[in-house]
Structure formats: structure tokens, C-alpha cells
């Protein structure tokens, strides 16, 4: 399968302060939507300003997307709009690192993308950023009613304090 939204940039052609605009075409949006399990991805674009510090490339910009996710309860489409800033740091793969070894990352390292060779893939990294921006449990307007009809309790009804309140009500002499 081909890379979705791949926009490879050669390191030796990246200039400090360069601005890159990425707009996904129909095929790229369909591919990203399939990969992320979206009902549809109607718009996906980003811009980034690149800063180069030796072999380290920083990309700072914004992603904008219009999409539909499936409600986790009903399966109905849930429209969503993503408009988020991002900062990615592309670094060479650490020496001696093997793909089967675990690598410890500090919280500040979470937006680090490792590369090997002389090319970074800004498009794939931006698509991954979209994936992290999505609601993991989208709910439609009818989700609450469907849950109630199925007899599923809300968090407030099922929590420990709700059980205590029910016990208290059962022990009241009134």
C-alpha cells in the first residue's frame, strides 16, 4: 500500500524559515480516512514553517480538517472540525537503535519523529498529528437516548457515589 499523504522533503533542500503548504487531494483524503477509520475526510490541509539546526528539522504550523467520525454508540456520523497548532521535531534515528528495542521518551519528546537517510516525510507526520487530534469516543446527539434505551447507566448513575446514595435512600426511615 502506498504512503498516505506522503510529502517527502530532502534534508539538503530544506531552508531555515521555509514555509510549506500541504493540501490533501481526493485520493489522499480517502486514504487517510480509511487509515483513521473515518466516515469521511472532506478537507485536510496544513502549513508549516521549517527551521533547520544541523540534522534536526523543526516544523511548526497548523492543521485544519473537516471530517465525519462514527458515533461509538449508534454508528451515526458525527461531524467534527479540527483546527490545531502543532510542533514536530524530526531527528536522525538514534545510533545503535534497533526496531525491536524499546525507546524511552520523555513527555517533551512526544512530538519527535525519527528519520533515517536524507529525507523527512512531513505529510505522513502531519496525518499522524490529525490522528492524535481526533475525539477517541465521538458521540452523536442520539447517543444518550440509545444508551438509556439499552439500559446502560451513565457514569453518574454507575459511580461509587451513586451506589452510596442508593444505599442511603434504602436506609432512610421516611
Describe the protein's architecture and organization.
The chain is of the alpha+beta class and 174 residues long. The protein folds into two domains: 8-141, no CATH class; 142-174, no CATH class. The chain has five helices and seven strands; from the N terminus they run ββαβββββαααα. 18% of the residues are buried.
Total count of strands: 7
Please state how the strands of the largest beta sheet are arranged side by side: 2-3-4-5-6
| Largest sheet, strands/sense/barrel | 5 strands, mixed
The low-confidence parts are none
How much of the sequence lies in strands comes to 25-35%
Rg calc? 22 Å
Helix/strand structural class? alpha+beta
Question: Please, what is the average pLDDT?
Answer: 83
User: Which percent bin holds the helix content?
Assistant: 25-40%
Give the overall shape: elongated
Q: How large is the count of helical segments?
A: 5
SSE order: EEHEEEEEHHHH
Number of domains: 2
Distance between the termini: 69 Å
Structure, briefly:
The chain is an alpha+beta fold and 174 residues long. It has two domains: 8-141, no CATH class; 142-174, no CATH class.
Strand and helix layout:
Elements: E1 8-10, E2 19-23, H1 26-36, E3 40-53, E4 56-70, E5 77-92, E6 112-115, E7 119-121, H2 122-133, H3 143-149, H4 155-158, H5 160-171
Parallel strand pairs: 5-6
Antiparallel strand pairs: 1-7, 2-3, 3-4, 4-5
What would the keywords be for this entry?
174 residues; two-stranded antiparallel sheet; alpha+beta; 2 domains; 5 helices; elongated
Amino acid at each position: 500500500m502506498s504512503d498516505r499523504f506522503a510529502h517527502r522533503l530532502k534534508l539538503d533542500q530544506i531552508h531555515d524559515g521555509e514555509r510549506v503548504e500541504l493540501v490533501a487531494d481526493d485520493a489522499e483524503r480517502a486514504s487517510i480516512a480509511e487509515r483513521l477509520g473515518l466516515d469521511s475526510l472532506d478537507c485536510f490541509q496544513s502549513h508549516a514553517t521549517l527551521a533547520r539546526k544541523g540534522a534536526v528539522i523543526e516544523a511548526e504550523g497548523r492543521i485544519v480538517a473537516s471530517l465525519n467520525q462514527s458515533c461509538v454508540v449508534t454508528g451515526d456520523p458525527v461531524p467534527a472540525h479540527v483546527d490545531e497548532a502543532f510542533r514536530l521535531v524530526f531527528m536522525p534515528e538514534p545510533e545503535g537503535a534497533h526496531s525491536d528495542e524499546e525507546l524511552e521518551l520523555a513527555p517533551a519528546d512526544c512530538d519527535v519523529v525519527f528519520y533515517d537517510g536524507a529525507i523527512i516525510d512531513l505529510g505522513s507526520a502531519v496525518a499522524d498529528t490529525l490522528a492524535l487530534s481526533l475525539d477517541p469516543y465521538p458521540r452523536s446527539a442520539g447517543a444518550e437516548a440509545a444508551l438509556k434505551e439499552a439500559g446502560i447507566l451513565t457514569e453518574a448513575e454507575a459511580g461509587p457515589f451513586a451506589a452510596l446514595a442508593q444505599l442511603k435512600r434504602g436506609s432512610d426511615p421516611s
